[in-house]
Amino acid sequence: MSESGFPSLHLVPKAEGPQSARDFKTDQEVRWCPGCGDYAVLAAVQGFMPELGIKRENTVFVSGIGCSSRFPYYMNTYGVHSIHGRAPAIATGLASARQDLSVWVVTGDGDALSIGGNHLIHALRRNVNLKILLFNNRIYGLTKGQYSPTSELGKITKSTPMGSLDAPFNPLSLAIGAEASFVARTIDSDRQHLQSVLRAAAAHEGTALVEIYQNCNIFNDGAFEALKEPGTRDEALIRLEHGQPIRYGTDLAGGVFRGPDGELFTAPVTADNEADVLVHDAHAASPATAFALSRIADADTLHHTPIGVLRDVRRPVYGELMASQLATAAAHRGPGDLATLLAGNDTWTVD
Amino acid sequence: MTSQVDQSEAVDGPDGDESRPGSGDGRPGAAVPAGPAAPGGSPPRRSKPIRRLDRVIIRFAGDSGDGMQLTGDRFTSETASFGNDLSTLPNFPAEIRAPAGTLPGVSSFQLHFADHDILTPGDAPNVLVAMNPAALKANLADLPRGAEIIVNTDEFTKRALTKVGYAADPLADGSLEAYHLHKVPLTTLTLEALKDSGLARKDAERAKNMFALGLLSWMYHRPTRGTETFLRSKFAKKPQIAEANISAFKAGWNFGETTETFAVSYEVPPAKLPAGRYRNISGNLALSYGLIAAAERSGLPLYLGSYPITPASDILHELSRHKNFGVRTFQAEDEIAGIGAALGAAFGGALGVTTTSGPGVALKSETIGLAVSLELPLLIVDIQRGGPSTGLPTKTEQADLLQAMFGRNGEAPVPIVAPATPAECFDAALEAARIAVTYRTPVFLLSDGYLANGSEPWRIPEVDGLPEIDPDFATGPNREDGAFWPYLRDPKTLARPWALPGTPGLEHRIGGIEKQDGTGNISYDPANHDFMVRTRQAKVDGIAVPEVEVDDPSGEARVLVLGWGSTYGPITAAVRRVRADGGEVAQAHLRNLNPFPANLGAVLRSYEKVVVPEMNLGQLALLLRAKYLVDAESYNQVRGLPFKAAQLADVLSAAIGTLDEEDHR
To answer: B117 burial class (0-12, 13-18, 19+ CB within 10 angstroms)?
Structure first.
């Protein structure tokens, strides 16, 4: 991959030779439950990393707490398995101090949206050069099955025997509202799509939020079944591609349209309305359409769930702004001189 | 085990605080002929008698919006450049602009300066400048008889008096007979001086603090050029305001010189401090410089992750001004993110620092525990304030010792360093960084609001003489088979290797889950956990810290007074008083609270009685009793203000007296 393919990595040293997925595997036994969607994501990420063409030692994975947060132990890079919800904050410090690193955050729906919600939204608004992989399984796995901030209203779990009372977050709507410059969604079981989204995220300069629908086969099995079953998935998924009309379904019979009130809606595509199908613009300056797309799915059936890159816009990167202030200060005032600083400009001498 | 003495009872006069060691007091000397001009720009000719004093305590008091802190700062700068030793105590409400003219809205700044070394801002002011009735009422109880009071009579209206509960005008009812009262219409005089300035009345009136400063500068022969330069620079973009302030300042000076209200002025000769180049410095500024110095001496880039909180924010402000040193400052979304970012930067090879106060420490606790587990260098700077909860944000206290010591889940030992004076905050920052980097551990630096905002002269150190800190990064595998084990320790320090991302071959994963000794891989093995817990404790216990020094001039003392942190000033002043009265008392002060100096146990056991004054309910005493089984006797105060020297002297004398009585029984 040429340097221009990943502009966000222009300060990261290039690998000297080709790498393989094997280079990114550790000797640690992977300890997720058999059948967990995390295995597929791990394999997809390990398979994708060589594409970046950067030195492996300049890659860092930072995670919080939860099943997905074990991820760094299985990546043969530098890694920190931190504490619940704080990975974006820790990664912000690392990425803003070290522009020569490719920093990835691995988190879950509880970690990122509940206990760590504050750090997530502030990382997004600052546009720190982080790639955040949010594994959303709509349940708390590691604590054995309580409802999460993305669980549907009325969810029956161990802690909500009569159903949960909380309206769920839509992670992508939240991210767009938090001024995110890159927002995408993909699915654990579709390796090709997952890697294509990783590719776009890695290229993005600034914070990239990638929501990965991930199946917890123990506590919330089949949560995304409608998006995976051969019989339903074509109807249920909307595959977004920048510059292409947004169409879905068998034979692309369905499309997304903008109504007279500005709202988006789905409808069968006919000869009459074919020209009106919305063309996806991931680079649109306004987040309005991306926000509308993030909410177009039916909350109950998951029908018409968009996957792919919803939003990808350029904004100054936090670490670069920080470094540029340091350079400006040094250029204007000269590099700091400790003796001068300590003396100040109001001294007296005692003989 | 605790005792309480109301400090107002302990105040015993203008000479009630520390005097020159051995002799001397604060009483005015005989009037002497006008001496040579003070350096730095005071007009040379003096037409009035001058009295020589060895020390003076002045308190400026007014509304929060009256600019009392600025006035105090300027007087301090003038005094520092004159060469007196000095100590300051700013005291202000948490509200930015409390309702005008009310008691809760009173802001004050106390300054003690002398011709000899002094240790505290003073117990009882010799001079009170009261800008309104509230300032008079709030501060009168602290004044000894015979003190001078300068009041702004313009503010003593019926309405203002009623607002603070004065039934009659104290300036007229004889209630201030015991004091030397100077009635000065500061507002009117300021407006008169600025009548040609073109400023609106409201703007002109705001310069009255500079009029007061000018008057006090005349009274105490302070050099004035620095203040004029300061005002021109502060109001560089508003030259009209700058000139107005300077005019008011000069008018105040001339008022003292020409009117009959003030018959004499006072001279406090420069102090004979050790030779060297000096500046005045506050604790927070010294601490900021110490952090920059630690970064320079270690070669590590400084990374501050912080969330604004009183009284620590000034460190964030200061460090953000020094980006040309490569200093990165990150104002985080909350306290947790502040320390998280600092820890993340430390993983990347920065000198990670977070600055906060007690409530922030509570929020950071989990991340401090993570840093203990990751064994990465990290500084946690706690500028303690009154607690619990929000407590007294602008007042001082030292009640976070046990929080720093134990305030985390699990066995999570963290070294603690505590400076004793504002200037010592510089050295403490370097010492904390040395421990953090050498031993790969988070370190607490416990300052407090009194040290943070107080100031004193500081002999500027030579950069080459500052300690060097070696980060000693890992550069290659540490196993014969070419592997790298992130928890393979240095056998001497027990520190683990610090391998930075970007170093080939040293890729490793670390986390908060218990790690296998050596490899750092996840381990739930019972014996390994027991070993790791004990090893982390042993690492902290084994940190090399200087021995505690005991000051016991005669070697005959039976009572030891032991303090830590900002109580150093008042304790030392009290010890001087006791000794001046013929009492024998030994003194020691702790700068390292975890681990304790190796000789501390022996020191404690060599005295019959150990008195531990603290601005908490006995937290150090609790640790001493637990660790050394000594009957340490607590003396406590949590009033948001430092101890007074007289108060502590009484406590020490009483302790000595008790032993003597027991002998005779």
So the answer is: middle
Is residue B442 left, alpha or beta, with left meaning phi > 0 and alpha meaning psi from -120 to 50? beta
A319 contacts in chain B (CB < 8 Å): none
Q: What percent of chain A has pLDDT over 70?
A: 99
**Residue A351: pLDDT over 90:** no
> Chain B 478-517, CB below 8 Å of chain A: which residues?
501-513
From the CA of A270, how many Å to the nearest CA of chain B?
50
Q: CA-to-CA distance for B650 and B178, rounded, in angstroms?
A: 25
Output the six-digit token pair for B227.
Answer: 């203040």
| Beta bridge partners of residue A349, listed in sequence order | B277
Inter-chain residue contact B509 with A73, CB threshold 8 Å: yes
Beta strands in chain A (DSSP E): 59-63, 78-81, 102-108, 130-136, 182-187, 208-213, 237-239, 247-248, 254-258, 264-268, 305-312, 347-350
Which of A222-226, A314-318, B8-12, B239-243 is the least confident region?
B8-12
Q: Please tell me the distance from the alpha carbon of residue A58 to that of residue A56, in angstroms, as a whole number.
A: 5
Whether residues B347 and A119 touch (CB distance < 8 A) is answered with: no
Q: In what order do the strands lie in the sheet with B148-152?
A: B85-91, B106-114, B55-63, B127-130, B148-152, B180-184
β partners of residue B510: A80
CA–CA distance from A346 to each of A13, A334, B69, B230, B317 (Å)? 46, 21, 19, 11, 20
Q: What span, in angstroms and rounded, lies between the C-alpha atoms of B540 and B412?
A: 10
- H/E run at residue B111: strand B106-114
Q: Which residue has the tokens 């404690």?
A: B604
Q: What is the pLDDT of residues B189-208, one digit of tens each?
A: 999 999 999 999 999 999 99
- For residue B655, how many other CB atoms are within 10 A of its CB? 22
Contact B210, B241 (CB under 8 A): no
Neighbours of A17 (CB within 10 A): 5
Report the C-alpha gap between A273 and A321 in whole angstroms. 46
Q: How many other β-carbons are positioned within 10 Å of the β-carbon of residue A311?
A: 25
Contact flag A329-B324 (C-beta cutoff 8 Å):
yes
Nearest to B356 by CA among B318, B309, B388: B309
In degrees rounded to 5, what are phi and psi of residue B594? -155, 115
ipTM passes above 0.95: yes
Partners of residue B367 in chain A, C-beta under 8 Å: 83, 86
Which pTM does this prediction carry? 0.92
- Tell me whether residue A239 is exposed, middle or buried, using C-beta atoms within 10 angstroms of its C-beta: 0 to 12, 13 to 18, 19 or more: middle
Which residue, B378, B323, B368, is CA-closest to B348?
B378
Chain pair A-B, CB pairs under 8 angstroms: 211
Q: What are φ and ψ of residue B116, in 5° steps?
A: -145, 175
Residues B62, B131: contact at Cβ < 8 Å?
A: yes
When CB atoms are compared, the residue of A56, A330, A347 closest to B278 is A347
Q: At A103, give phi and psi (nearest 5°).
A: -110, 125
CA A79 – CA B334 distance, rounded (Å): 24
Q: Which residue matches tokens 């064994």?
A: B375
Identify whether the C-beta of residue B50 lies closer than 8 Å to the C-beta of residue B189: no
Torsion sign over Cα A156, A159, A161, A167: negative
Q: What distance in Å separates the CA atoms of residue A181 and residue B321, rounded to the nearest whole number?
A: 29
Encoded tokens for B23: 């002799």
Whether B182 and B148 have beta carbons less than 8 Å apart is answered as yes
Indicate yes or no: CB of A82 within 8 angstroms of CB of B328. Answer: no
* C-alpha separations of A13 from A58, A207, B405 in Å: 7, 20, 42
The phi and psi torsions of A223 (rounded to 5 degrees) equal: -60, -30
User: Do residues A94 and B350 make contact, with C-beta atoms less than 8 angstroms apart?
Assistant: no
